[in-house]
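Morning F.,

Quick status update on the modeling queue. The single chain you submitted on Monday has been processed. Sequence for confirmation:
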Amino acid sequence: MIPEMDKFKDECGVVGIYNNEKTFDCVEDIYYCLFALQHRGQESAGIATNLDGRIYTYKNKGLVSDVFDNPEDFGELLGNIGIGHVRYATSGGGGTTNAQPLIVNYKSTQIALAHNGNLVNARALREMLEDGGVVFQTDIDTEVIVNLIARSLKNGIVESIKRVAEIIRGAYALVITTEDKLIGLRDPFGLRPLCLGETNDGYVLVSETCALDAVGAKYIRDIDNGEIVVISKDGIQSYRQNSWVKKRLCIFELIYFARPDSKIDGISVYQARHRAGAKLAKEDNIEADVVIGVPDSGVPAAIGYAKESGIPYEIGLIKNKYIGRTFIQPNQKLRERGVRIKLNVLKENIQGKRVVIVDDSIVRGTTSRRLVEILREAGAKEVHFRVSSPPVTNPCHFGIDTPYREHLIATKHSIDEIRDIINADTLRYLSIPGMVEAVGGGDVYCKACFDGDYPMEVPIED
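Structure tokens below.
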């Protein structure tokens, strides 16, 4: 990540489709699901379909609409079973080579696999496999997983996956297709989300429920932490891993990453963010004239803040939706103008007013500083910055591309110092207890980026 970037980067999104009708081509449904999950990754996209055990695949760099812009691409992807993937690189570099799904041939069997998450012991496992003669085609941890599965296939696919799950450490939501099956797997901590839906003639596995809506699938349930689901002509079979760990869903899924119209483990993302804003207002005592949110993920929290505080909510920032998250900033001048190009101030709602601006997080502080700057230039009398999550003090090792710890502004500066750096009149973060209450309470979340309490051993930063 270059120093100018001041937001967490998305992870990946996965899709799996199984249809009981052999004549059904699942590729279009996968495409629409990936479209709904585009916010989870914009570097590459891919689809692999399965017709009677034979895998067909197409993947490339770019957005889903760019990768599959030719109708002929669909015609070459045959099969009633298939998986799809949108990627942001958290392990390995970008490019077509590292795009997913990954395909391996083992004897007379083909396996296609797509992965959302990150392994913390991938390097050691890769070295072990390479010492055994395995040749890798990519530099991503997903290839480690698929090679480990292939090595144990003589025991059957389910037993092979169980054995692999005992070896790998980290976060993973996997969709796999081989032979006549679609398989889903969630890590023992449930760090990354995965849910199950049903169509008239089959089933759907997706990272978020918004993708089920895209194909008219009915939500059934979330896959449990440590659960393997196998979908075939015999229906759904569920298997459990031998794990005694507690669930630790990544709390940032609810705070920032997931689409607001999704539900993660039964929790409405929009309501969680709305409640976070309300909790923030309860912990606050500022007097102001207007509350605005930073599009898009800061808006529900801003609405919740305004409702709880009684300060009117207004639209203060207009987002240029045609830039998106793939906007290239080729030089320093454009990087400095990045916020201005992406967000513009609605001056009529800002001028001469005391403004509360609500965002979901502050990473390095550069974007926050520029937001305060453009609000002041638009005539804001005061700018009070509010964050609907606690200070980020630790990097993530489980599939979110966070900066090294030394680049996180909250590790080196107090809240008062950060306020001065971003040039706000006041600055307040949501407390950790307030954040946990906002997402439903309980000890079922990974909050390591805020409190340093990782659910497993993690690599020491180089």
